[in-house]
Amino acid sequence: MSSGKTLFDKVWDAHIVYSQPGYPEIMYINMQYIHEVTSPQAFDGLRKRNLPLFRVHKTLATADHNVPTKNQHLPIKEALSRKQVEMLTTNCNEFGVTLFGLGHPNQGIVHIIGPELGVTLPGMTIVCGDSHTSTHGAFGAIAFGIGTSEVEMVMATQCILQYRPKRMLITIDGELGKGVSSKDIILYIISNISAAGANGYAVEFAGSAIRALSMEARMTICNMSIEMGGRCGMIAPDQVTFDYINGREHAPEGKYWDKAVEYWKTLYSDSDAQFDKVLHYDAADIEPMITYGTNPGMGIKITQRLPVATDLLDSSEVPSFKKSLEYMGLAEGQKMIGQKIDYVFIGSCTNARIEDLRQVAKFVHGKKKAENVEVWIIPGSKQVEKQAIEEGLDKVFKVAGFDLREPGCSACLGMNEDKVPAGKYCISTSNRNFEGRQGPGARTFLASPLMAAAAAVTGKVTDVREML
């Protein structure tokens, strides 16, 4: 019998407060991130039960989902958004929670500010009332989204009840081709295993292609592990991780740093660790990817044609496949290259880090957007925005006709003012392409920042490799 442990089990076991066979385990949570949408009812629950926040310093708040991305210094126009952001301020003041609200130099999308401030660290357990909390797993943390009642549970006890998921290992080995990024890796995996392929699993990503990625790129992959049904996604920390964290505002320092790194170096899956499922992929097989349907699993390589109903292995999928194409206004067997685009959205917790903006700016330098396209670039945080301006990226975007706005979730989720109009096509670097996700009737193609930038310049879906 193997005695080796997976990375997931090492972190999970270190946080179990109480365990009894057949029941969910009580698990200690190192950090809870909160925002304006899923926290009001949780605070209200504490108030009604006359409970304090159990560990105030283990909660960090920011305003991101429902904030405008223009004129953030002015009062929010939309009534519900304004009320939610005001409630977050009121609640954080009352309960003593650190809040990075609008105008604060640390404000931004919750899953971008945690890592950039050095709050997210390897070996942690992290929760947030947002499904893309899996992003933080790129640091070798167990991070997952929770519901509002669970947000309240963690506020009251710093613990949560959880059943241990099964373990899946996905390895990608070899070198990525020209124009292929981490967004293409994760879209490729999801297109292979489907949007439900990792249901019930904690997923670890490994292999030489993963180790070669930057921290920003690793976060993109873990961010979308939820889009294949995974409970969380993880990547073992290594020197790339340590170099990224070192010197950040809340990172350990001095002897505490040395002690932390010593522990972090033990966070990997042992060679004899047992996984419930193992998948292997060759990096050379991955091309720039694009989705065509209404879930992230409906994706193809840019050179492929859309499937036809008769190709589907499971005949029960035919009705939803046809409904999806009807919504998207696409035909079976057509090519995506040349498909007209109306909007380009570069942003979200998936791809709004400084590395993403640099990549786009480098590509569009000296080019101009197509006349028929509106391009929104939304930095993931005030820090990213500041860096982009200091590096002159804002000037590159301005010359290209791209609209660089202020930080927030923006057009990822159709909850704030940044919505794609009905029937219009948007190529988006975000994580979801559900019906109406970017606004009622909006049609979304998911792709990498480079693919989105290529579409912005040509006005249509383009194989970015032809422009590199």
Task: Describe how the helices and strands are arranged.
Layout: H1 7-13, E1 16-18, E2 25-28, E3 31-34, H2 40-48, E4 59-62, H3 79-95, E5 98-100, H4 110-116, E6 125-128, E7 142-145, H5 148-157, E8 159-162, E9 166-173, H6 182-193, E10 201-206, H7 208-211, H8 215-223, E11 232-234, H9 239-245, H10 254-264, E12 277-282, E13 289-291, E14 299-301, H11 318-328, E15 343-346, H12 354-364, E16 374-377, H13 382-390, H14 393-400, E17 403-404, E18 425-428, E19 443-446, H15 449-458
Parallel strand pairs: 3-4, 3-6, 4-5, 6-7, 9-10, 9-12, 10-11, 15-16, 15-18, 16-17, 18-19
Antiparallel strand pairs: 1-2, 2-8, 13-14
Structure summary:
With 468 residues, this protein is an alpha/beta fold.
Features:
single chain, Aconitase, domain 3, alpha/beta, 468 residues, 15 helices, 5-stranded parallel β-sheet, globular
